[in-house]
Design brief:
The protein has twelve helices and 15 strands. The protein has 417 residues and is an alpha+beta fold.
């Protein structure tokens, strides 16, 4: 087994990820990368420097590229390594990850990013793949496939060509994320599609999403915002989530476990983005939106920075869902508003405390709360109706619309008190 992996940004060598004699990961940029002003750091938490980064700085970013919880455990069993062995998992999965990077053994290079390398799946093959994913996340072990996505939900990076779903060729950038339903919760496909489309309707930047059905099987296709396709060539855009940017390990993604909270997040956006005033407003509106739809799982790995040519910006929203509709899901918010998750406690005074903790103007915050909640209440029925015309209407979706509308009214009223 290799003791080092070469880290590429597209087809350029960024540096080396290695394990030392103690089994700890360490990362170092190449001197050429450090000295070239046009080359960016791979993470806000890993600024360009000649000196090698130790485990404490290295692990949060690179472990943050890997799946979590059950998918991670399943991959580790299939690869034959410990689930805590980040390095070995990156060896197995690091050919296509979130952002612009890929990881290869010394002497290997990323292949050219051409769509024609992909293998289009028939309906039967797609259904078989959906059945296989819980047992074999990321299709680990399939010839030539090395790809990874963070998160605890089962999902698969794929390539979409003229509407058809395909598996990528070796090292090929994927264009979409295929997400099967979450088995223990009803209608999660429609739930997530509703939330992302509602976000777009109220003026938020959100990942494009398409719910699909093959025979009796539902799934979601989410277009990757960290990919660009032009003339049949897919290019990667770099990105990192807030945990990676702040040097927080993925297992500490929740604020109550030491992960990012709202004050941390607003500070990061102010310091890191090219247009902080715009992105602070976008983050505030996203926080209000998650609260209104009842998304308790908006943690530090569900917000990201996108490395555009013009500079860093807040990435489009993704992984949105109304978790409040499911009785078995905890109601405590991943990031609390001035130490509360209960919308009944969100008085004007509480909103003012939240504003102060995030270095925002109180009246500015309350005005945004009222404006966003009015838009959410107005457009929620439209988002559901459009899903209904696509064959995804359900009692659960009707209940979500009622819940979101009610929460929006209550939150807005609290900001007026």
């Amino acid at each position: 087994m290799s003791r080092a992996l070469t880290v590429f940004w597209d087809d350029l060598v960024v540096g080396t990820l290695r394990i030392d004699e103690h089994g700890d990961m360490r990362f170092a940029y190449t001197q050429d990368w450090v000295h070239d002003a046009a080359c960016r750091a791979i993470s806000y938490s890993l600024p360009k420097q000649i000196e090698e980064f130790g485990r404490r700085q290295t692990r949060p970013f690179f472990a943050g590229l890997l799946p979590e919880e059950r998918p991670r455990d399943a991959v580790a069993r299939l690869v034959g390594v410990s689930e805590r062995n980040d390095y070995a998992l990156l060896e197995a999965l690091g050919g296509d990850v979130a952002g612009a990077l890929s990881l290869w053994e010394p002497g290997q290079v990323p292949p050219p990013p051409q769509l024609e390398k992909a293998r289009i799946l028939s309906d039967d093959e797609l259904i078989a793949t959906l059945d296989e994913l819980p047992r074999r996340p990321m299709l680990v072990g399939e010839d030539g496939i090395r790809m990874s996505l963070a998160g605890a939900q089962v999902k698969l990076p794929v390539v979409v060509i003229d509407g058809a779903i395909a598996l990528p060729g070796p090292g090929q950038p994927t264009t979409h994320i295929l997400k099967p339903p979450i088995e223990k919760f009803p209608h999660t496909t429609a739930n997530e599609a509703f939330a992302l489309r509602l976000a777009a309707l109220v003026g938020l930047q959100a990942a494009n999403v398409e719910p699909r059905r093959i025979r009796d099987r539902e799934f979601l296709l989410v277009e990757r915002y960290d990919r660009l396709t032009a003339d049949g060539v897919v290019r990667r855009l770099h990105q990192e989530d807030f945990c990676q940017a702040l040097g927080k390990s993925p297992e500490h993604k929740y604020a109550k476990e030491g992960g990012p909270n709202f004050p941390d997040s607003f500070k990061l956006v102010r310091e890191a983005t090219a247009k902080p005033a715009l992105d602070v407003l976008r983050l505030l509106n996203a926080a209000i939106f998650n609260l209104a739809i009842g998304n308790a799982d908006a943690h530090g790995k569900n917000f990201s920075l996108l490395y555009r040519p013009s500079g860093l910006t807040l990435a489009p929203l993704y992984d949105l869902m109304s978790t409040a509709i499911y009785p078995d899901v905890a109601t405590n918010l991943a990031m609390q508003f001035a130490k509360t998750s209960n919308i009944a406690e969100l008085t004007e005074a509480r909103w003012d405390k939240f504003a102060a903790s995030c270095a925002l103007g109180p009246s500015y915050v309350r005005n945004q709360v009222k404006r966003m909640c009015a838009l959410i209440g107005k457009h929620a029925p439209t988002a559901a109706e459009r899903l209904g015309t696509e064959g995804f209407q359900s009692e659960t979706l009707d209940e979500i619309v009622v819940l979101v509308t009610d929460r929006s009214v209550r939150i807005a009223d609290a900001a007026r008190q």
